[in-house]
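Let's practice the habit of predicting before peeking. Look at the sequence and jot down your guess about where helices and strands might fall. Then scroll down.
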Amino acid sequence: MGDDGISAHAMHPGWANTPGVVDALPGFHKVMEPLLRDARSGADTIVWLAASHPAPSSGRFWHDRRERSQFRIPRTRHSDQDVVRLWRFCCDALELPAV
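Done guessing? Here is the structure:
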């Protein structure tokens, strides 16, 4: 958590049986429906993060209440330069100064 009391987390809910999966991936949903999590199970980690005291370290990636690697496949890693470019793009799109 930062000095301002704000934490930022990213998480993966696992494959959950939601309208988004049904609409975006109908074939996947049809085959995998028996194995998909319900919405409550998909939301578990984010609810746990929000309710944890003290809060876990900010800036981590979570799945099933455990910190996970951000990069499952080595070629998906990004450089510091990529992060700066993305930050500047977001600031420009929102018409905010890049800090």
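How did you do? The CA atoms of residues 8 and 58 lie 5 Å apart.
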